[in-house]
Here is the input.
Amino acid sequence: MVSNAIQSKQLLNEAYDAPKDKQLGLYEKVAELGNTQAMVECGNVYYNRNPFTEPNDKKAFEYYEKATKLDNPEALCTLADCYLHGVGTKDKSHFSENVKKAVPYYKKAASLGNLDAIITWKDCLRLGRGVKKDLKEAQKWEKAFEDKFNSLYSGYTTSYQTNFREERIKLRQSDWIGRPIPDTNSQKHWTWLENGHSEDRMEEIKKRRESVFKLRNRLSD
Here is the structure.
């Protein structure tokens, strides 16, 4: 008899290969089996403006939140992003409160080895955002990122690794709608966030979110 874990993994692989207009329904069925990655994929469909699915930040947030309760690293990091940027949450304007909610999720996701979370958690420590500034600890996480990255991509050429690493960091230190920060100055990212989230800015985020996630998906291949 096939266990739920094996069955859900098989079904998830089938969902990955399915046409995009069928994927959400398949992901939801697998999520019901308790598969946290399927929960994340459901959130991604609602979050990424899938052409066959009406975007729904609230549903995306709920799926990520459900997966975080089962310690899925990607969900932990993305839920933190949601809090930080006011996506799918009730409060979209109070930056300091959003940071306080986001930081613990970044820290936990980083401790579970999520590369994106490690980058952001390192910046939180380096800049003192939502946590006491600690340059020594930030350096430890810088090394943790390099070690994790090298272990994952050791089979690739040096030039590919270098370009991939730079793009990955730049994506995390972007202003969320895809514009790179000069010299990867993450301080500018936080300054942009501190200005709050006007309706016009939130609309701009939504319009360009798809291009950001296309880059993220390409970097994750």
User: Anything to note?
Assistant: Residues 199-220 form the longest helix (22 residues). The chain has two domains: 1-70, 92-221. The two ends are 33 Å apart (CA to CA). The chain is about 70% helix and 0% strand.
